[in-house]
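Justification of computing resources. Each target in the renewal requires a structure prediction run like the one illustrated here; the chain below, 327 residues long, is used simply to show the kind of job we budget for.
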Amino acid sequence: MEFSKISAFEAESTWKNLGDTATLKLYGFVQVLPPDDQATDESATIAGKLVKVEDLVKVGDAVEVRLGYDGELRTEFSGYVAEIKLTIPFELRLEDEFFHLKRTPVNRAWKDTTLRKLLAELVPTVQLSSTVPQLHIDSFRADRTTVAGVINKLKENYLVCAYFRAGRLFVGLPYTEFSSTSNIDGASSYYHFQQNVVDDDLTYKRKEDVLIKAKVVAIHRNGKKTTVPGVGDVDGEERTITLRTETTDKAELTRMAQVELAKYKYDGYRGTLTGFGVPFVLHSGTADLHDGLHPQRDGRYLVDSVKTSFGPSGFRRVVELGKRANS
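Resulting structure tokens:
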């Protein structure tokens, strides 16, 4: 089934969540086109009739949303109907492959395993980044939960990120999916403030004005952790710094954390910018910013999230910037 016109579309994609979500709004009635050679008996029966959309869609149906300009369309979201709202306009809440993980039950225990093995058992098709360590896990129990619940617990315990990309689960440290040589559409984007930036909610800060206080969590190969609270600026924004190291010396961990904290102190932008539907942008990639009026503020930033919208007001992307790349 294909809809050539929609009322509105909104989607959010970020490395911070296990699943991407979207909302698709459709007109309440559609005229069903005459069937082609692949038509089913059901579609042939309703051909040419005015049909309620709610009679054509059900929870679990696969959905692909393609948007673009001048007939040049690209896939913006691929997933499943998670919820149907009988509103005006008719509304579908969508989820990516996370939809199935939420519905796959788990009730078992693991002993003497590793983080990588456990993830591969849960989702055999998982793409494990080299940044996922061979952490030993003495025991791990999942009682009356789901695959999604287990993965979220592993994210919390071992401070990795997990999300779907093109239908496949990726697990690794934040911003490690792409490399500088990645030739993937959306992995890098370019914004010129005087050309393709519609609006922004950005604040430019100098590094000496950035205050950060961190909790340091050192994760060792045996799966155990050493925690050092309160590293950095006393009144600073709170963050968690994850270290993969065998040292348990808190003075050394503090020194290592201060090196990591320095990467968050840079002259640059914080916040979001709004652009058109082009360029296409992926979270965890990079956005190059250029300002013709203030070229000293040019820079490359990692992308934390992308919110895509399409409707009467146009085709837009709101890009949330992460830390400055290579800083």
